[in-house]
Amino acid sequence: MIPFFVFLTPLFFFLQNNFCVHGIFDPIDFLALQAIRKGLDDLPGSNYFASWDFTSEPCDFPGVYCEGDKVITLNLGDPRAGSPGLTGNLDPSIGKLSALVEFTVVPGRITGALPESLSQLTNLRFLGVSRNFLSGVIPASLGLLRELQTIDLSFNQLSGSIPWAIGALPALSNVILCHNHLSGSIPPFGSQRLTRLDLKHNELSGTLLPNSLPSSLEYLSLSWNQLTGPVDYLLTRLNQLNYLDLSLNRFTGCIPGILFTFPLTNLQLQRNLFSGRVLPISQVTIPTVDISFNRLFGDISPLFSNVQNLYLNNNRFTGQVPGVLVDRLLTAGIQVLYLQHNFLTGIQINPAVEIPVSSSLCLQYNCMIPPVQTACPLKAGKQKSRPTNQCVEWKGQKSEKTNNITA
């Protein structure tokens, strides 16, 4: 067998003669870059590879950053806005860039599978190949990348399950796998550094165990999946959240009152199967709260009066609309107050009052005649009130008082 160094010898002298100013470029990295280049092309309008001339110093190529004689960062494609990106496939030779710390690809039309050889990049901390057309599965061997902090494979066509080995990576801080075709259950994530988990728009199913996600999470989006089961015990642990979106799943059980005390700026729980009473334990200051299209019941808490956008529609709420919510609406403190499709029996509001143009109120299809005419979403339908037989306590009588409509 001819030794490997015999093949490298001509390349070694070429590199020595041409790159002597900057030192000798690693020959294995040189061959790997050549193979990667052969697998990819510029889309029309892109000139990213125009200056990848292998008779010159590779460390001067756009997107290639070196430390000594090794490539440590590879950012493929022109990151400037509007660049059409690249086409082709990712060559397995990328696994030969042994010192690589960061690997990214700009949005384009790269197809094929994610190379298994990525698992050889034991120094890799950042992996970002989003908004392309990658297919196949996420290699379970990525679980060997113990230094990996960010993995972003969003907006591709990846399928199969999320490898449990990825969930076990100790340094993960960002996992972004949204907008793919991933299925199966969500693995437990053990990294106490994990702050962002974005798995929305997939085909994930199954339940979430109370200890399956770390309390370090600040951003959690699981919307548009097929997840089931209760999450109340899980949520009570995630008290660092500033964004939570569990919408369009099949979650059940109650919504814990303590959740409304978390430092959230956006709470999206709509279109699930949540049930029970909604009882915040203190004044809610979350700007947007959407718990619509569930099976929630009982009185509406006045502690929601400081919410700017409040969606309570399509539930089973009963009783009077708290006056403090009306007061806040009329002073434009509340911008959206959607109460349609419930079983509410009254609201204290003068029919002649003018609702601020910046605010929206919808009362359609409750157990009362709406005292004010307001613009509602088209999906609310045209019926102003529920049929009498659906409202046990409602007698269908309109109050003669202009400032009080009650059951």
TrEMBL record:
Listed name of the protein: Leucine-rich repeat-containing N-terminal plant-type domain-containing protein
Organism for this UniProt entry: Capsicum baccatum (Peruvian pepper)
Pfam short name (any one): LRRNT_2
InterPro entries according to UniProt: Leu-rich_rpt, LRR_dom_sf, LRR_N_plant-typ, RLP29
Transmembrane regions listed in the UniProt entry: none
Signal peptide bounds: 1-23
Keywords: Leucine-rich repeat, Repeat, Signal
Annotated GO biological process: defense response to fungus
Domain Leucine-rich repeat-containing N-terminal plant-type: 29-66
